[in-house]
Structure formats: structure tokens, C-alpha cells
Amino acid sequence: MSKEMQELQKQWHSMMQAIHTNSNVVSFMNSRVGQYLDDHPFVALSLLVFIAVSAIPVAFFLIFVISTTVMACMGVIVIEGVVISVGGIALLCVMSGLGVLSLAVSGVLSICYIALSTLINYWHTPSSLVKKQDANENSLLQSSPPVLDPSNKNTKSE
Q1: Angle formed at CA 49 by CA 47 and CA 53, multiple of 5 degrees
Q2: Which of 60, 82, 131, 153 could serve as a FRET partner for 100 with CA atoms 20 to 30 Å apart?
Q3: How many Å apart are CA 123 and CA 143, to the nearest integer?
């Protein structure tokens, strides 16, 4: 054998020693599964090939799951933003309608107040004002000349 091949064999042997002396590997090889795979090398090789080959589809699936999760979160944020915007616009419309309604109601109430206060003032004038008006009417009647009544027979005829 050439020196390079012997060097490569030494490196391989030292790497295998490092793997076999690892505490995790030692505990796995002492388990039932590790003993079974050590007794059945074809099953161990098949399992190793399956794990190596399935790594790519599993990685693609995990990328798909993560990307759809991110897109769903972004979609929820977008949908939530749209819902909040629509709700804000609806609230603005309702508040504007309530503002117009309150102006109309206060206008109607103001008109009713003015009309009722005028009617109450007209119906319930103070008694001193009524006496003054009656006195004015009586003085006007007394100062006017007597009206000739043709039906009055007590008048002297010439």
C-alpha cells in the first residue's frame, strides 16, 4: 500500500474511533435498537439511505409549512386591517348620521320650545296687564259719541 493510502486509513480509523467513543453513540448502541441495527447491517444501511433520501422532501415540506404559516399570518394581518378599515368607515358613517340626527332633533325641540313658550305667554298673561287692557278699552268706549239706535223709541220726535 502506498503511504497516502495508509495516511487516509489512519484518518478514517481516528474518525471512527471518535464516533464510537462519543457518549451519545455509545448509549444508542447499547439500546435495543442499536443492538438490532448492529446485528442487521442491511437494515441499518436501508435506514441510513432512507433518512438521507427523505431529508430533501422533508426539508421542502418544512419550507412549505413555514412559508404558508408566514403567508397566513400576513393574510390575517391584511384581512384584519381590511376588517378594521371597513369597521372604521362604518363607524364614521354611523357617527355622521347620528350628528345629522342630533342636529335635526335639536332643531325640532327648539322650534317646539319657542312655539310652546309663545302659546303659554299668550294664554297666561299677567293679571295686571289684563286689567290695563280692560281699562283702556273702557275709556275708549266712554269717550266715543253715543251711537244712534233707530230702534230706540224713547227718543223725542219733532
Answers
A1: 120
A2: 82
A3: 29
